[in-house]
Amino acid sequence: MTSDTRAHVRITPTHLADGRELFYFDDSEPYVSGAATRRLDDPRPLPDRFAPDEDGHVPAGPELRRDPLTGEWIAMAAHRMNRTFLPPADANPLAPARPGATYQDGEIPADAYDVVVFENRFPSLMRVPGVTDEVALQDGEELWQTRPAAGRCEVVCFSSDPTASLRTVSPQRMRTIIEAWAHRTEALNATEGIEQVFAFENRGKEIGVTLHHPHGQIYALPYLAPRTAAMLATAQEHRAATGRLLGRDVLEAELRHGARVVLESEHWVAYVPFAARWPVEVHLVPRRDVPDLPALTDDERADLATTYLELLRRLDLFFVDDETAIPLPYISGWHQAPARQGRDDWRLSLQIFSVLRAPGKLKYLAGVESGVAAWVSDTTPERIANRLKELA
C-alpha cells in the first residue's frame, strides 16, 4: 500500500477480498495528513474473481458483439441480471462498515470515508487475465464478430451518508470528487486497450437507479462509444473546414448571444445547448481549451466545485409541485477526449439532462426517437434557459 497527496487530498489504494482495487480519497483529518489510515483489509470470504473453478475453468468475462448493421459494439453482461436492486437500508453495499462489526457484505471495509472509488462487483466491462483482446467470429460467420469486453467499470461513492446527494456535499468534498474523477481518468487513459473514459452519475428512481446511495460510475471503454465517435468526426470536419476548434466556436457563439447562458464563473460557463434534446439539459464547459479533467488546473478545479454545486441547486428548483420543489432526476456525464486519438480536436464538457418534462410526467422516447434516433424536443432551449436564469 502506498499513498499520495495532491491538492489537499490523500489517495490510498488497497484491494478487496476478491482482488478488486479500491481507492480512498481523503480530505479530512487525521487521514489527509497521513496520521491515520482507513481500514485496508476486507474480511469477507470472497473467492478471487479470476480463480479457476473445480474443473479448472477460469470465469469468463463479459463479451462484446459487433452489430453488423451499424458497426456498434454491444456488451453482453448476463451476470448483471441478478445484481443488487434497491436493497434495504441495512443491506446497502455502499454504506461504510458498522463500527465494531466483524463482518458485513458491504463493499467498503472502513467504518467511515470521505470519497471512495472501487471496481464494480457486477461490471459491464472487465479485462480477464490471460484473455487476449482479439476479434473472433461466432460460429465461423463473417458478420458475427465478437471480442472480450476488456474494459473496466468503477463506482465512485460521493459520501458515506446514504441520505445525502451530490448537491448536498460541501464545496471541499465536491473538490475531492473532482480529484477522484481526474485521477481515475488519467490512470484509465494510460491502461492498455482503453480508448475512452466516461465518468457519469445517474440520480433518481425515474432514471432507473438501483442504489439510492449517492454515487456515480466511471467506464473505461475498449472502443469509442457511438456518440463520442460522432462528436469527434464532427469536430474534425469543422477543423478541416475552418482551422478552428469546434468546442471553442460553440462556446464563443453562446457567449456572444447570451440568451441560453445560465451561469458564469471565473473559469466555467453553463448554457443550454442550441439544439437541446431533453426537457431539461445544460452543458457546463471550461473557459480554457482543455481536453479532459486531468488537464484542469487547481484553480479551475476549485472553481468547478462551487459552480457545479450552484448548477445542481438550480436544477433541483426547476420543477415545483404544490409549492414544493422536486429533486430533479438526471444523468450527468463528462465528455472527455478519447485516450488515443483526436485529442487536439476535443474540448471538455459536462452534459446534464433530465427525462422529467413536468411534475409527475416523464419524457418517453417516441418510436421515431428510439427507432432511428430522430429527436423531437417537447420544449425550447430558450425556455429551459429562462427558467434556470430565474433561479439565480
From TrEMBL:
Catalytic reactions on record: alpha-D-galactose 1-phosphate + UDP-alpha-D-glucose = alpha-D-glucose 1-phosphate + UDP-alpha-D-galactose
PROSITE patterns associated with the record: GAL_P_UDP_TRANSF_I
Chain positions covered by the region annotation Disordered: 35-66
Pathway: Carbohydrate metabolism; galactose metabolism
Key word Signal present: no
Gene Ontology MF terms in the entry: UDP-glucose:hexose-1-phosphate uridylyltransferase activity; zinc ion binding
Swiss-Prot/TrEMBL keywords: Carbohydrate metabolism, Galactose metabolism, Metal-binding, Nucleotidyltransferase, Transferase, Zinc
Active site location: H215 (tele-ump-histidine intermediate)
Gene Ontology BP annotations: galactose catabolic process via UDP-galactose, Leloir pathway
Annotated Basic and acidic residues bias: 38-66
Catalytic activity, EC: 2.7.7.12
Domain Galactose-1-phosphate uridyl transferase C-terminal: 238-346
Cofactors demanded by this protein: Zn(2+)
Transmembrane parts of this sequence: none
First-tier enzyme category under EC: transferase
A cellular component annotation (GO) from this entry: cytoplasm
Family, as annotated: Belongs to the galactose-1-phosphate uridylyltransferase type 1 family.
NCBIfam families: galT_1
Family annotation (PANTHER family): GALACTOSE-1-PHOSPHATE URIDYLYLTRANSFERASE
Protein name per Swiss-Prot or TrEMBL: Galactose-1-phosphate uridylyltransferase
Species per Swiss-Prot/TrEMBL record: Cellulomonas gilvus (strain ATCC 13127 / NRRL B-14078)
